[in-house]
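Quick log. Single chain, no ligands specified.
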Amino acid sequence: MQQDILVNWSPQETRVAIVESGAVQELHVERTLERGLVGNVYLGKVARVLPGMQSAFIDMGLERAAFLHVADVWQRQPDGEPPQVARGSQPQVPIEKQVFEGQALMVQVIKDPIGTKGARLSTQISIAGRLLVFLPQDDHVGVSQKIPSDQRDSLRRRLGKLVGDAGGGFILRTNGEDASDAELAEDIAYLRKTWARIKESATRLPPPSLLHQDLNLLQRVLRDLVSEETQTIRIDSKEQFGLLHAFGQEFMPAAVSKLQLYKGERPIFDLYNVDEEIAKALGRRVDLKSGGYLIVDQTEALTTIDVNTGGYVGSRNFDDTIFKTNLEAAHAIARQLRLRNLGGIIIVDFIDMQREDHREAVLAEFRKQLARDRVKTMSGGFSQLGLVEMTRKRTRESLAHMLCEPCPSCMGKGTVRTPRTVAYDILREILREARQFNPREYRVIAAPKVIELFLDEESQHLAGLSDFIGKPISLQSESAMGQEQYDIVLL
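-> predicted structure:
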């Protein structure tokens, strides 16, 4: 299937859209100010060693010195086991015998600075590729624990042959489980070339210096997103096109021929209405061409997708109407999972189908569409309740979590209490206050709709309460307040 990649770059934000057959399938967003330091490799300078805390502070040229604990100091096992950082029951060499003040030390950030705390560091370097993780100080080959145990031995032997005797350790990531030998070999070459550049920079640059920065989104486009189906990679920034071209020539030469500088007058995302698709992907309802629709609800634990016929009445009979709606929904759901980057447990409620062949056809089409997803998915059949349960690996924040925040009025509930409900809350609160205090007057400050209700339909109840407590109650409308917000001021 033909695929095009569109890159919209600005100093504050990079956006990447993957378009297949004229429709946006995936969206990736990275904001400059939100990029962390995790994965970056620095040549730092030991500022202080604290034997009492078994830690050291490392100057990396950042606002605050970073923190290195003895448990994160790499050391070789005496019994010939693979090198690793000192953890668990492994005997630890005191930190004052491993580092000293003024020493130049290669370190990697494993935790971003938070508040007044500096970054946390490790001296064991690991470089992540698309399919593998390279541990240049190690010499063993490993496989992710998330890959089924019955497959690990064969994958380990296969990877060992590709690695050869050139040195360095490799760990196969979960998304490399089904990779070809050619793809693994390409990732090995990229990681070794990256490590060679880091070592060369360490001998040339003075501490403190940044030796390696985890790839930005533009570079990850070439490393992770380009496939054999990719026809073009169009980017709308001349400067970034030049940088990406240079990066591609050094690390991903096969992808360089697909790079194109977009010079059109219209914004690049307007070519395929990408911004309109983003707006739709942030809503609950997704309309289908037939007249049916999906309702997508994302919660902390899982995502539910409900299929409805809507205005689609079909042309023959009710069974065919439901079948066609479900087939179209199978396409749309697989696309929405990629576009919204939904992960974790997903429950799909297709419209109930009476015929077994219809259920099998919808399930087969759904799995066919999921197979196009670069993120690993697993789906079951129809449950006794007619639901399809599936999982999709979480790789990054969902689109909604990245671009949105909970509504300040409803606090994420999706609904707010009616003006009448809030008005009755206010009346009860005034009565509660009247039993404890004896002010001259009560002033209610609330949203305009609540105040309008007190002036109109609820005026009799407000007047009755004022007579009962023997105090005047005045009203003040505040447009900046949310519908559920109010204040009762004692004057």
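Residues 78-83 have pLDDT under 50 and may be disordered.
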